[in-house]
Specification:
By secondary structure, this protein is mainly alpha-helical. Among the domains are: about 5-150, Rossmann fold, CATH 3.40.50.300; about 160-215, Orthogonal Bundle (Helicase, Ruva Protein, domain 3); about 225-315. It is built from 22 helices and seven strands. Helix 5 (about 115-125) links the parallel strand 3 (about 95-100) and strand 4. The strands form two sheets. The chain has a five-stranded parallel sheet, sandwiched between helices. A two-stranded parallel sheet has the order 6-7.
Length: about 475
């Protein structure tokens, strides 16, 4: 059995490091109630984020449901799995159910990009504890970050990993020197999962681990697209750009967009011109690749775009560079959102006017825009339009957002007033019941007191037994 899973922490007292974060999580669980803000645990991979969530479920005796990252994690799946779980109780009907959404920052690139909005809806409607886990805090949509309590997990120092590794060696009967354990912990760079994996790999087929075994072993650390882009532009030293490129799980057509988008970090125009020449040549190879379906050309495109740009920029640059994803992706996502909002608006207008969406789009969009501009508040409230729908008709995003916000505020006020009236009516009913009960009690007490004070009732009654006795005696002695 894999040691990572075998020695995964099952309870809070088994968690290594991040004690302050662990205490915050435990306090959140103890104070949790319906409507509480969910947790967002973030930090680098392999430092115990998912393990602490499962340990929390075990210690609190909660059932747990985990939604892992996958290509099928679309809006529909999230709403079905996480949304349904948070609005229902546990299978046994007792206790709570902890819903864990792991790698919540890995929603980009799915066929259905409604994942972030689905999570926001799930969070707003959750009736069970909810924990989101992410490696990159800013890889999450801002709408998710802003409605969660954020807790950071930090990489573990080597001195914290060594005792755990020594304990595992003792349990498995493997001999390993302290220096070897320190070397493994340092190579892991704070990643407890990687440290345990290296220890397991070194112990296979042997009962002792030597320093020589450690020297030929190392952490299989895969670089990210951020590392590759920074190294290509010269903001990070690297012995081999091609090795980084091979370890990055991105295709050349994606890498070229990252490099091109971040060229604005370079201030020297001559260097930028040389970099664009290299990118244009690489783009030609990419075009031939897709045109002829001959993917061997990818290697030439990769070499030109990485080494060519790096050579054109001439060496390492000073300072800090914030590598950003391609702006083209954000623009495409925004265009898709606008298109979806237009189709929804045409459907809403068509249903209200008993016309097809195509007829609304072709003949009535301009006249409706004129009508809506005269009194947008009534239209937005009656048709339940959001700010995107209203902006299509008004062409004024600020006004659209203010109108929708005003409608939402009014709705909340009405709901609040309705709840207040319901509470007052409930209090009045309780008070009326108490008054009726008091009146009934007083009525009964009055009747009892009347019976007690009635002279006829209170007059002593003759002893019938005595009378019968006298009568029987006189009869007996009558001659």
């Amino acid at each position: 059995m894999d040691w990572v899973e075998k020695y995964r922490p099952r309870h809070f007292d088994e968690i290594i490091g991040n004690r302050e974060a662990v205490h915050q999580i435990y306090d959140w669980a103890g104070k949790w109630k319906a409507g509480s803000v969910p947790l967002l645990i973030y930090g680098k991979p392999g430092i115990g984020k998912t393990s602490v969530a499962w340990a929390l479920a075990n210690d609190m005796s909660w059932e747990a449901v985990e939604l892992n990252a996958s290509d099928q994690r679309t809006k529909a799946v999230i709403e079905k799995v996480a949304g349904g779980s948070t609005c229902t109780g546990s299978l046994s009907g007792e206790g709570k159910k902890l819903v864990i959404i792991d790698e919540a920052d890995n929603l980009q690139g799915n066929a259905d990009r409604g994942g972030a909005r689905a999570i926001v809806d799930v969070i707003k409607n959750a009736r069970q504890p909810l924990i989101l886990i992410a490696n990159d805090l800013y890889g999450l949509d801002a709408s998710i970050r802003n409605i969660c309590t954020k807790i950071q997990f930090k990489a573990l120092p080597a001195k914290s990993l060594v005792p755990r590794l020594r304990e595992i060696c003792a349990l498995e009967g493997v001999s390993c020197s302290s220096q070897s354990l320190i070397e493994i912990a340092q190579q892991a760079e704070g990643d407890i999962r990687s440290a345990v994996t290296m220890l397991y790999a070194l112990s296979v087929g042997r009962d002792s681990i030597t320093d020589e075994d450690i020297s030929i072993s190392g952490k299989d650390e895969r670089k990210t697209i951020f590392d590759l882009t920074a190294a290509t532009l010269g903001f990070r030293k690297s012995d081999s750009l091609l090795n980084i490129k091979m370890s990055v799980d991105e295709t050349p057509d994606t890498v070229i967009q990252w490099i091109e988008c971040n060229l604005n970090l370079i201030t020297d125009k001559r260097k930028i011109i040389g970099a664009y020449k290299a990118l244009s040549r690489a783009d030609i190879y990419l075009g031939d690749t897709f045109r002829n379906q001959y993917y061997t050309l990818w290697r030439y495109a990769s070499v030109i775009m990485v080494l060519g740009v790096h050579d054109a920029l001439k060496g390492n640059l000073s300072g800090f560079a914030k590598i950003m994803p391609p702006s083209r992706w954000r623009q495409m996502s925004g265009a898709k959102r606008v298109k979806s909002s237009r189709e929804q608006l045409f459907s809403i207008l068509g249903n209200s006017m008993h016309m097809s969406a195509g007829t609304i789009r072709t003949f009535y969009l301009s006249p409706l825009s004129i009508l809506v501009k005269k009194n947008p508040f009534i239209f937005a409230e009656k048709l339940q339009l959001n700010s995107d729908h209203l902006d299509i008709l008004l062409h004024d995003p600020i006004l659209s957002k203010s109108i929708v916000k005003e409608i939402e505020d009014n709705r909340k006020k009405i709901e609040k007033e309705k709840k207040r009236q319901e509470k007052e009516a409930e209090k009045a009913n309780k008070k009326e019941k108490v008054i009726k009960k008091e009146i009934t009690n007083k009525s009964v007490e009055g009747q009892i007191e009347h019976l007690i004070n009635d002279p006829e009732i209170s007059k002593p009654k003759p002893d019938l037994n005595q009378k019968d006795k006298k009568t029987s005696q006189s009869t007996l002695f009558s001659f």
